[in-house]
Design goal:
439 residues; mainly alpha; Citrate Synthase, domain 1; two-stranded antiparallel sheet; 5% strand; globular; binds carboxymethyl coenzyme *A
Length: 439
């Protein structure tokens, strides 16, 4: 029937759909392995009725954008940022360079990198009123709530950020947000401990400065161990982006209303806060603690196989071979423990992994350790309380969120996000005044 769309798309690949309600056949163009959901709307029983739509809660099989930022091949265990394998970036790059790559699309030259590092370092301070604002939170406020609120509040300090169609202005906000996120994250941490907030030290590296703002006390200068700085850089690189996950989708969805980027990123932080997204490493620690000792592992595994519980830190919706980030994190674990001493839970984790990887239940379901299996152990060894784990995820993910936001703003195909619904409620009811309503 409507095969002109196939021709105009310049593609020979098509899908023929026969609507058994009417007997009519439609030919829908296929491009990049997808059909256009809007093409389905041409399939209708009569002109007065709405066309066919796709029902896809959770966007399980719906592409919402074209993106050239992050590539994942879950079957092959591949993760690439702008085409560069994550293994090479984790081994040879640093977080700020990776952030530049995500945001700009290319690795920087030496001059570009120096300028970028200078810009980010120059913008690490926040307005004093942000400090007062953060001090107003209750003593036991969750650091993710504090981070989300203060990032949202930044939009009121930079009202020009609403001018999202000016590239220079966009750049300024990107620099500010990547620069200020460690300051806000560290202050949220200090707040819970009742310790004074530490101002940024612009002589230090991005990760070195973050560690100083977290842990500095009365010393004149705080210099973290280089091995810890490097381990944190690696963790930041691994968490910088992961294509269209829940929080990236939240940033894009909110950003599609053309709001300022602080408000859009605050929405991403909210999404990351949820236990299904940023909180699994915390659950791994709880699980390891509950198992308690290596001899209890077989009993625990039996419980998992019986369906009583899950082996947290195992399995992934996308990675069905292995999670490339997990391999890199395991190495970072060794480096951190060299400085901090071994987390006693590591022995249980290593043995658990060994047993699970040989067990038919896990092998047949393609369940491998994911990024969260070892990251919690590192964070704990660095003396972070579990509430801080997701903040440590949000700080590096900011460059990914901003890369997604920049791509969205520049994409002429994007529109305000507005999914359809299948209405299941009542119709045409008659209003009854409150005093006349029966229970
Ligand atoms: N322990 C035991 N069984 C599992 C696990 C697990 N961790 N994960 C999946 N399975 C089983 C599941 O019971 C099912 O078995 P069956 O076919 O007999 O019913 C089969 O494997 C498929 O599971 P699924 O729930 O359909 O898989 P999914 O793709 O919907 O879930 C997941 C992915 C990550 C939510 C899940 O593997 C899980 O809950 N893992 C533990 C939590 C976790 O570590 N999450 C962190 C994810 S990585 C962080 C990130 O990248 O954002």
């Amino acid at each position: 029937m409507s095969d002109e769309t196939a021709a105009s798309a310049g593609s020979n690949e098509t899908l023929t759909v026969r609507d058994n309600r009417t007997g009519v056949e439609y030919e829908l163009p296929i491009a990049d392995g997808t059909i256009r959901a809007a093409d389905l709307a041409k399939i209708r029983t009569d002109e007065t009725k709405p066309g066919l739509a796709a029902y896809d809660p959770g966007f399980v099989n719906t592409a919402s954008c074209r993106s050239s930022i992050t590539y994942i091949d879950g079957d092959a265990g591949i993760l690439e940022y702008r085409g560069y394998p994550i293994e090479q970036l984790a081994e040879q790059s640093n977080y700020l360079e990776v952030a530049y790559l995500l945001v700009h699309g290319e690795l920087p030259t030496k001059e570009q990198y120096d300028l970028w590092e200078h810009e980010i370092t120059f913008h690490t301070f926040v307005h004093e009123n942000i400090k007062t604002f953060m001090q107003g939170f209750r003593y036991d406020a969750h650091p993710m709530g504090m981070l989300q609120a203060s990032v949202g509040a930044l939009s009121t300090f930079y009202p020009e950020s609403r001018n999202i169609f000016d590239p220079d202005n966009r750049h300024m906000q990107v620099v500010r947000m990547i620069a200020k996120m460690p300051t806000l994250g560290a202050w949220a941490f200090r707040h819970a401990q009742g310790k004074p907030y530490v101002y940024p030290d612009n002589e230090l590296s991005y990760a070195g400065n973050f560690l100083a703002m977290l842990f500095k006390m009365s010393e004149q200068e705080f210099q973290a161990d280089e091995r810890l700085i490097r381990a944190l850089e690696v963790l930041f690189i691994l968490h910088a982006d992961h294509e269209q996950n829940c929080s990236a989708n939240a940033v894009r969805s909110v950003g599609s209303s053309e709001v300022d980027p602080y408000s859009a990123v605050a929405a991403g932080i909210g999404a990351l806060f949820g236990p299904l997204h940023g909180g699994a490493n915390e659950a791994v620690l709880r699980m390891l603690r509950r198992i308690g000792s290596v001899d209890k592992i077989p009993e625990f595994i039996d419980g998992v196989k019986a369906g009583d519980e899950r082996l947290m830190g195992f399995g992934h919706r996308v990675y069905k071979n292995y999670d490339p980030r997990a391999k890199i994190i395991k190495k970072a674990c060794d480096d951190v423990f060299e400085v901090t001493g071994v987390n006693p839970l590591l022995k249980i984790a290593v043995e658990l992994e060994k047993i699970a990887l040989e067990d038919e239940y896990f092998v047949s379901r393609k369940l491998y350790p994911n990024v969260d299996f070892y990251s919690g152990l590192i964070y704990e060894a660095l003396t972070f309380p579990p509430e801080m784990f997701t903040v440590l995820f949000a700080i590096p993910r900011t460059s990914g969120w901003l890369a997604q936001w920049l791509e969205l703003v520049d994409d002429p195909e994007q529109k305000i996000a507005r999914p359809k619904q299948i209405y299941t409620g009542a119709h045409q009811r008659t209003f009854v005044p409150v005093g006349e309503r029966s229970t």
